[in-house]
UniProtKB/TrEMBL annotation:
Annotated Thiamine phosphate synthase/TenI domain residues: 15-193
HAMAP family reported for this sequence: TMP_synthase (MF_00097)
Stated family: Belongs to the thiamine-phosphate synthase family.
Protein name: Thiamine-phosphate synthase
């Protein structure tokens, strides 16, 4: 596989390696299964991992992704991204603001920002973000989000008008990822559909193929 440039978000499925889903499996094992299936971008999302274990996981998962030619972004934690030499961060309303993330990370790493619509996407662009995560796209059990479900139609409007590449998140599954790709979205973030599949790597392969087909207009 050709390694993507380290400061550009690859198109396609965007896989979250999450400690709240399938919590008994070590994060590094989950990440290994995701990249074995062809994940080109992995976001390490640690909501319940204690700090020292989180640093170790950030370092291991970053190294593993690099060996596999995938990008590794840290959810929330700019400090861990810097310490681990990760490719960037994803921040939302409850995290450091994107300007601060950019100030710490410099121009060569990715900063993704959660937004709910076009106004947020424009503000994220002005704050120096590289892409926006937009959701919840569909209903999700993985996170309680204090914002209404967008649905495909409103999501497509955001994709159309956004000055930054858009990654949809929330309830993205194998059966609907093609529809997300068909909106022109740059990416589709997936948590439970991949991590709770019987064979995580095989599910990632299927998600990659379905995104490609949907994006090609099939
Ligand atoms: C790609 C992507 N988009 C949105 C989010 C949500 O981030 P945030 O709003 O900060 O919520 P938490 O993930 O921190 O609970 C995301 N993680 N990734
Ligand atoms: C972190 C996050 N932010 C908005 S929805 C979500 C979780 C999405 O999880 P799933 O893919 O399992 O619906
Ligand atoms: Mg966050």
């Amino acid at each position: 596989m050709n390694a993507p440039p380290r400061n550009m978000l690859p198109r396609g499925p965007y896989l979250l390696c999450d400690d709240t889903v399938l919590p008994d499996v070590p994060l590094v094992d989950k990440a290994a299964r995701l990249v074995a299936g062809g994940a080109r971008v992995v976001q390490l999302r640690m909501k319940r991992t204690p700090p020292r274990a989180a640093l170790a996981a950030a370092r291991e998962v970053t190294a593993l992704c690099r060996r596999a030619g995938a990008l590794c972004l840290l959810n929330d934690r700019v400090d861990l991204a810097l310490l681990a030499g990760a490719d960037g961060v994803h921040v939302g309303d409850e995290d450091l603001p994107p300007e601060a993330a950019r100030e710490l990370l410099g121009p060569g790493r990715l900063v993704g920002v959660t937004v709910r619509g076009l106004e947020g996407a424009r503000a994220a662009r002005d704050a120096g973000a590289d892409y926006v995560g937009v959701g919840p796209l569909f209903a999700t059990m993985t996170k309680q989000v204090g914002a209404p479900v967008l649905g495909l139609e409103s999501f497509a409007e955001v994709v159309k008008g956004s000055p930054l590449p858009v990654v949809g998140i929330g309830g993205v599954k194998l059966w609907n990822i093609g529809k997300v790709a068909a909106t022109g979205a740059h990416g589709a973030a997936v948590v439970s559909d991949a991590l709770l599949a019987g064979d995580i790597s095989e599910r990632v392969r299927q998600l990659v193929a379905a995104f490609e087909q949907g994006g090609a207009g099939d």
